[in-house]
Description:
Layout lengths: L5 E14 L2 E11 L2 E7 L4 E2 L10 E7 L11 E3 L2 E4 L5 E7 L10 E3 L6 E4 L12 E7 L8 E3 L3 E5 L1
Parallel strand pairs: 3-6, 4-7, 9-12, 10-13
Antiparallel strand pairs: 1-2, 1-5, 2-3, 5-7, 8-11, 11-13
Amino acid sequence: MPNFSFVPLEGTIQNIRPFGDECCSSLVTLQTSEGTVTVVVSSDTYVISEVRLRRGMTVAAFYDAQVPVPLIYPPQYRAVILGRKQPNETITVDYFDETLTNNDNTLKLNVSPATDIVGSNGQPFRCSLADRLLIVYYTNSTKSIPAQIVPRKIIVMC
Length: 158
């Protein structure tokens, strides 16, 4: 598995403005539970379902913790993945092994027939989920280690 460490930033969009001379990049200001952060949304950012970002929208943005960030305030991160977040829903991004347990052994997927499984292009995905980068949407988890979840939706990043 590639060496990525995706860190989530969840918050409400406060502002969206152009970034630099690029017409394809934006700075999105989020109000999170820890304070204000800025997220760079570039042409390389995978925006789930190509949702149009708006002020007041609650989102989850994921950045790669292996990539250096500038030492400025408010903190500024380059989003790798960004998606709209529903109330009481959790979105996680990680690699899952053959038992569908994530890299740090904190989450195990129990896929049900009702789980919507699609590729990053939105088409049904019918292959193995093992050893793939997955975007997982869920609401409840057990208190076991690893926590077990029944995902509502899984997006496979091919």
